[in-house]
Amino acid sequence: MNPLPVQRAHELHSASPETRWLIESLWADQAVGIVGGEPKCCKSFLVLDMAIAVASGSPCLRHFPVPRKGRVLLYAAEDALHVVRSRLEGICSHLQLDLAALDIHVITAPSLWLDSELDQKRLLDTIDRLRPRLLLLDPFVRLHRIDENLSSEVARILGYLRQLQRQFQLAVVLVHHARKAARHLRAGQALRGSSEFHAWGDSNLYLRRRDEHLSLTIEHRAAPGKADLPLVLQGTDDLLALCLAQQPPAPVQPRNSAEVQLLRALGEADVPVRFSVLQKQCRIRTETFCKLLVHMQAQGKILKTAQGYRLTATPASASRSL
Length: 322
What we know:
By secondary structure, this protein is an alpha/beta fold. The protein has helices at residues 43-56, 81-95, 117-130, 151-168, 196-200, 258-267, 275-282, 286-298, 315-321, and strands at 21-23, 27-28, 32-37, 72-76, 104-106, 134-138, 171-177, 203-210, 213-220, 226-236, 239-244, 302-305, 308-311. It has 2 domains: 17-244, P-loop containing nucleotide triphosphate hydrolases (Rossmann fold, 3-Layer(aba) Sandwich); 258-321, Winged helix-like DNA-binding domain superfamily/Winged helix DNA-binding domain (Arc Repressor Mutant, subunit A). The protein contains 9 helices and 13 strands. A 9-stranded mixed sheet has the order 5-4-6-7-3-8-9-10-11, sandwiched between helices. Strands 1-2 form a two-stranded antiparallel ribbon. It has a two-stranded antiparallel sheet with strand order 12-13. The radius of gyration is 30 Å and the shape is elongated. The N and C termini lie far apart (87 Å).
């Protein structure tokens, strides 16, 4: 007999707040998950930005801090190696970083099949040798020969990646395509193939393009997420980098204060207004309303008469001032 290892619940390792994030608010430490979106939504730019952020300790997308930098292992199955280098150098130029100084390792094998026991063993041995903090695999469709709609087949590959995460205590980012014309669906539900993809992720990032506007939705299993963060691709030619757009501040709406309501109500009246009528018009609690009347009388803005309250100024002039 070989029993499974167990441990008392209170003896389990607990992470300090600074070690709970690989990239703060964007990707949990040692999390597996999906970067998803339709084609041409800058998914590759996002994962390369994550690679540079983790390797350098610079904020991802110029916004999300990296508490502790570490080694990155990347496999880009869809892009030529010179394109990968060019994109990494473009991002580095925005951050004034030297790519040669960053601990980013790129798998150069022509193919990597996650449904192959041989390639699974080769990837495991590579991770065992390099011990990265982050593994990036882009995209899933080029990494297997299975039916993505069969949960049993998808689950075996995702289970293998979860095993890597637990064995080597690293984060795993898997790029996956969303179905076309699925914008009416929740971001995770728009992913191609089995629902296993959405359920698998501890942290998931979804990119969506509406006309010329690109947005990012963040989901976490154990932390609050964010939706529809605007992104822009900045730079020219080969020097491009994805950045979180600066959102203009929301316009400040004029505050319809109790004092303004009271002055407007009196300004619109041709005769003094009784307390009960005035309070009903202003919809203010009795205690608050009494204090307001006393305060405004002390300031000389209103007068109390036997018939009710009126403005100190004439009604016509008070109305014009409002």
